[in-house]
Automatic annotation (TrEMBL):
One example GO MF annotation: tRNA (guanine(26)-N2)-dimethyltransferase activity
Keywords: Metal-binding, Methyltransferase, RNA-binding, S-adenosyl-L-methionine, Transferase, tRNA processing, tRNA-binding, Zinc
Record-given protein name: tRNA (guanine(26)-N(2))-dimethyltransferase
Function summary: Dimethylates a single guanine residue at position 26 of most tRNAs using S-adenosyl-L-methionine as donor of the methyl groups.
Any one of the GO CC terms: nucleus
Region (Disordered), start-end ranges: 56-107, 546-589
Compositional bias per record (Polar residues), positions renumbered to this chain: 72-85, 97-107
Entry's family note: Belongs to the class I-like SAM-binding methyltransferase superfamily. Trm1 family.
Pfam families for the chain: TRM (PF02005)
Reactions the enzyme catalyzes: guanosine(26) in tRNA + 2 S-adenosyl-L-methionine = N(2)-dimethylguanosine(26) in tRNA + 2 S-adenosyl-L-homocysteine + 2 H(+)
């Protein structure tokens, strides 16, 4: 039985939790960015859902009025004798007025919009669900799940600790989230999956649990897998093979979206991404899920393979399908390809092939703008206000219809020249008649609809102005520079070379607030010297010396009699998680 002094009170937003000082139930303070972004999108969803319901009711009313007008016109043309009511059918004026006052016409009857139901599949301490219940107005029930008894006990304790505002809305269950979601199809308006690692094993059940038009929020922290370090593992989990490139974090988002779409299609459902972001050490996507057997036929139009040159930074996308319009019908057919020759036309090297990835837009511009406006109007209610506004601001300025990006320093490195400034390069692209923007993933990332021959022409002209040393004749840069530019490049300052945020000097890429800002040790694990990169040398030393670490709530209290230098003794509570073949449901709340 834990004593009072074994707990510490952690406050985030309007919620408070009692957290054991030892690493029995997972909690990561870094995920405040994740939780704040989720609350911002959830508030936007509640407002958007209400607007859509009102628009549907107005549409029905308008349709009825048009039908009534047409019926009146037809009746006016009929014989007057047929329009006279039968004496037996006449209703007294008093009774008629009472009937009108008590009975609503059938065309006015619209299904009442019920408060949205929220499911957090991997709750751990329950902090995320508590913040939803206490901070987001208009929510109905919030259900928190976990398959670890210590986590569910902690969650229930925290629900009581937060008083009536939490107990009236929130409930916690000890259950396998996958089984629970499969047995509650289309029941929840919002489903949140935020696992420790890969969400792949939860996706199939999650897309079935979301109601039509509902919101699925999903996090993936296995970035080494998604970014190409373990390509074969990525294919086994997500059904896509990643390529290595500077765009890898955006590619991770697109692989995750493609995987969710694939799972949804099996049940005649499809997704519409409203916001997809890379933050800190993970990717997070927000998608709406709907049912339409006809719409899923368009899925191949939203997916593409990647051809990545192994010599230079150029990449090309090959769509999986195409649509053919004939008269009033639309037919679907395989795409015509390949879009590239056997060797790169710029440097002569071979291509690696990856994918399929989601190549349609990963954001909804209206959602991003409305979410950003909502965050700014409630600044005091977001602990990570600066971070999420910087991310949303950068996302709002992206070219949403351009998949992936390239790195300005990398293309300069390919031709071995000094990199032009971002403003000069953006100006050159704009003056050539193409669009260009930054990306929220990295400050040096560039999105553009300019073809690669134009990009390399700009670099060729730049090298003419800024000569370089002679390079090996077989290098990709030498091959690229051996060709003459086909366009005249103008490096003069363009009016749109700076984004609106840059013009207003809005901070877009913030440093980490503290050292070792990243993932923490999984709940129940021994903390040893190998975790120094996660917790820092000070925390590791204090643990190995038998002291209690307070850094991020992820320290562990070792047995004081333990002489072993490896860390915590194995007499931890029996509820600590055991690693299994499946991903554990330990989760940052």
């Amino acid at each position: 039985m834990a004593e009072v002094e074994d707990y510490e009170i952690i406050r985030e937003g309007e919620a408070e939790i009692l957290q054991l000082k030892k690493n029995a139930v997972f909690f990561n303070p870094v995920q405040v960015h994740n939780r704040d972004m989720s609350i911002a999108v959830l508030r936007a969803f509640v407002a958007k859902r209400k607007e859509e319901h009102e628009a549907l009711a107005n549409k029905r009313n308008k349709s009825h009025q048009e039908n009534k007008h047409s019926e009146t016109s037809i009746q006016n043309g009929e014989d007057a004798s047929t329009s006279q009511p039968d004496e037996m059918d006449v209703v007294p004026e008093k009774d008629q007025s009472q009937a009108q006052a008590t009975k609503t016409p059938s065309w006015k009857v619209t299904r009442e919009l019920k408060p949205p139901l929220v499911l957090e599949a991997l709750a751990a301490s329950g902090l995320r669900s508590l913040r939803y219940a206490r901070e987001v107005d208009g929510l109905g029930k919030v259900v928190a799940l976990d398959n670890d008894k210590a986590s569910v006990d902690s969650c229930k304790r925290n629900i009581k600790f937060n008083g009536a505002s939490a107990t009236s809305k929130m409930e916690a269950h000890l259950v396998d989230a996958r089984v629970y979601m499969l047995t509650h199809p289309k029941e929840f308006d919002v489903v949140d999956i935020d696992p420790y690692g890969s969400p792949s094993v939860f996706l199939d059940s999650a897309v079935q649990a979301v109601a039509d038009g509902g919101l699925l929020m999903c996090t993936a922290t296995d970035m080494a897998v998604l970014c190409g370090t373990n390509g074969e593992v990525c294919y086994s989990k997500y059904g896509s093979y990643p390529t290595k490139g500077k765009y890898c974090h955006e590619m991770a988002l697109r692989i995750l979206l493609a995987s969710i779409e694939s799972h949804a299609n099996r049940y005649k459902r499809y997704i519409v991404p409203v916001l997809s972001v890379f933050m800190d050490f993970y990717v997070r996507v927000f998608v709406r899920v709907s049912t339409s057997p006809s719409e899923i036929k368009n899925t191949p139009l939203k997916l593409s393979y990647i051809y990545q040159c192994v010599g230079c930074d150029s990449f090309h996308l090959q769509c999986l399908g195409r649509s053919i319009s004939k008269n009033s019908t639309v037919k679907h057919a395989p795409a015509i390809g390949p879009v590239v020759p056997q060797e790169c036309s710029d440097c002569g090297k071979k291509f690696n092939v990856g994918g399929p990835i989601w190549s349609a837009p990963i954001h909804d511009q209206d959602w991003v703008v409305s979410t950003l406006a909502g965050v700014k109007s409630m600044k005091d209610r977001y602990p990570a206000y600066n971070k999420i506004t910087s991310v949303l601001t950068t996302v709002s300025e992206e070219l949403h219809d351009i998949p992936l990006f390239f790195n300005l320093h990398n293309i300069a490195g390919t031709v071995k020249c000094t990199s032009p400034s971002l403003v000069m390069f953006r100006s050159a692209v704009l003056n050539a008649g193409y669009r260009i923007s930054s990306t929220h993933v990295t400050p040096l990332g560039v999105k553009s609809d300019a073809p690669w021959d134009v990009i390399w022409d700009i670099m060729r002209c730049w090298v003419k102005i800024h000569p370089i040393k002679e390079q090996p004749h077989d290098s990709p840069g030498t091959t690229i520079l051996s060709k003459s530019p086909t366009i005249e490049v103008d490096f003069s300052r363009a009016g749109a070379a700076l984004s609106k945020a840059q013009t207003k000097k809005v901070k877009r890429f913030l440093p980490n607030p503290e050292r070792h800002w990243g993932p923490k040790v999984r709940a129940g694990r021994k903390i040893t010297s190998k975790h120094v990169s996660l917790l820092g040398p000070e925390a590791i030393n204090s643990i190995l010396n038998g002291a209690v670490s307070h850094e991020g709530g992820n320290g562990a209290a070792p047995d004081k009699a333990a002489p072993e230098p490896e860390g915590i003794k194995d007499d931890e509570p029996s509820t600590k998680r055991q690693k299994t073949g499946d991903d554990e449901q330990a989760n940052e709340p």
